[in-house]
């Protein structure tokens, strides 16, 4: 099988924690589910290593799932159009590229509001282009659902990695895709399923809660509902690994997740904070890996 890596940058992407997450994999994965797929680092790792027979990925971000779908079904067209954008970008000055970025961002938002089936390919191409040319690869929308991340001034971004796009497409051929609430994955999950859950993280501070992937937030109420969902699928016999922020980075007395997941194994692992605009404030912090694998076997 092809080796593939995420075709987009994604805040909270798990490429840097793959080694720790791999230690939680069961010995065999025949059925796999990822209810918050995001950039797909764990997805592509699992697909490459285990070739599961049944796979379901989901994300509430419909534009993200559309992009996965277009890479699965229309990879060569994606490559063709991204190559055209790459060539135009290379020829422009930075000032022209900035103007080009905002023109494409406007077009993308037009498609978000009113897009026909035939325009889903264009929307996916623009999704990748904007991801590679916006600030830190953020995906943030305003209250109207419009993408509003600014230009990143990158001089030579690569947004048409032909080899990797083809590898991703090959691995996605057997993957079912949904764009809905994560709870809709419940019927797919059974005692043969390995589930990796990487939800929107609980912010460590009030000012850290700056990003919204959809028009809806993910508050402590939603975190508790997710905890109940994880308990429910665990009781069904599913093998579960979940990630989240560690509140003890900023408040050693904050036991929110320790209490919520008290029946699970909780491991604290080191990860780099990459999204702060001040480079001096980027550094290693702890994240949580929550698992029932030890209790299942």
Number of domains: 2
The biggest sheet amounts to: 7 strands, mixed
CATH architecture of the largest domain: 3-Layer(aba) Sandwich
Poorly predicted regions? 275-280
CATH topology group of the largest domain: Rossmann fold
Assign a percent range to the helix content: 25-40%
Order of neighbouring strands in the sheet with most strands: 3-2-1-4-5-7-6
Helix count, per DSSP? 10
What does this protein look like?
The structure is a single chain. The protein is an alpha/beta fold and 297 residues long. It has two domains: 15-60 and 180-296, 3-Layer(aba) Sandwich (Rossmann fold), CATH 3.40.50.150; 69-163, Adenine-specific Methyltransferase, Domain 2 (Adenine-specific Methyltransferase, domain 2, Orthogonal Bundle), CATH 1.10.1020. It is 38% helix and 14% strand. It contains ten helices and seven strands. The protein has helices spanning 18-22, 41-50, 62-73, 75-91, 94-113, 120-133, 162-172, 220-235, 256-260, 293-296; strands at 31-34, 54-58, 175-178, 193-197, 239-245, 265-272, 284-291. A seven-stranded mixed β-sheet has the order 3-2-1-4-5-7-6, sandwiched between helices. Helix 8 links the parallel strand 4 (193-197) and strand 5. Helix 3 packs across helix 6 (120-133), helix 3 (62-73) crosses helix 7 and helix 4 (75-91) packs across helix 6. The longest helix is centred in the middle third of the chain and has 20 residues, at 94-113. The relative contact order is 0.16. Mean pLDDT is 91; it is low at 275-280. Belongs to the N(4)/N(6)-methyltransferase family. It comes from Treponema porcinum. One of its GO terms (molecular function) is S-adenosyl-L-methionine binding. InterPro entries: Ade_MeTrfase_dom_2 (IPR023095), DNA_methylase_N6_adenine_CS (IPR002052), M_m6A_EcoRV (IPR012263), MeTrfase_D12 (IPR012327), SAM-dependent_MTases_sf (IPR029063). This is Site-specific DNA-methyltransferase (adenine-specific).
């Amino acid at each position: 099988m092809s080796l593939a890596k995420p075709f987009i940058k994604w805040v909270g992407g798990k490429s840097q924690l793959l080694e720790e997450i791999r230690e939680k994999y069961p010995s065999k994965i025949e059925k796999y589910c990822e209810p918050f797929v995001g950039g797909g680092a764990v997805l592509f790792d699992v697909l490459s290593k285990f070739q599961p027979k049944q796979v379901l990925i989901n994300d509430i971000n419909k534009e993200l799932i559309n992009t996965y779908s277009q890479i699965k079904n229309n990879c060569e067209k994606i490559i063709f159009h991204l190559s055209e954008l790459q060539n135009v970008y290379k020829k422009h000055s930075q000032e022209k590229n900035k103007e080009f970025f905002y023109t494409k961002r406007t077009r993308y938002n037009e498609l978000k509001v009113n897009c026909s089936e035939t325009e889903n390919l264009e929307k996916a191409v623009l999704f990748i282009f904007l991801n590679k040319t916006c600030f830190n690869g953020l995906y943030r929308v305003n209250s109207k659902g419009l993408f509003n991340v600014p230009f990143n001034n990158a001089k030579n971004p690569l947004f048409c990695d032909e080899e990797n796009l083809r590898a991703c497409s090959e691995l996605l051929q057997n993957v079912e895709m949904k764009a809905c609430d994560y709870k809709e994955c419940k019927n797919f999950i059974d005692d043969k399923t390995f589930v990796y859950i990487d939800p929107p993280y609980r912010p460590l501070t009030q000012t850290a809660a700056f990003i919204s992937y959809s028009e809806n937030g993910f508050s402590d109420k939603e975190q508790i509902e997710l905890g109940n969902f994880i308990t429910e699928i665990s009781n069904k016999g599913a093998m579960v690994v979940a990630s989240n922020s560690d509140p003890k980075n900023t408040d050693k007395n904050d036991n929110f997740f320790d209490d919520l997941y008290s029946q699970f194994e909780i491991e604290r692992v080191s990860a780099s904070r990459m999204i702060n605009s001040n480079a001096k404030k980027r550094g290693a912090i702890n994240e949580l890996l929550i698992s029932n694998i030890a209790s299942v076997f």
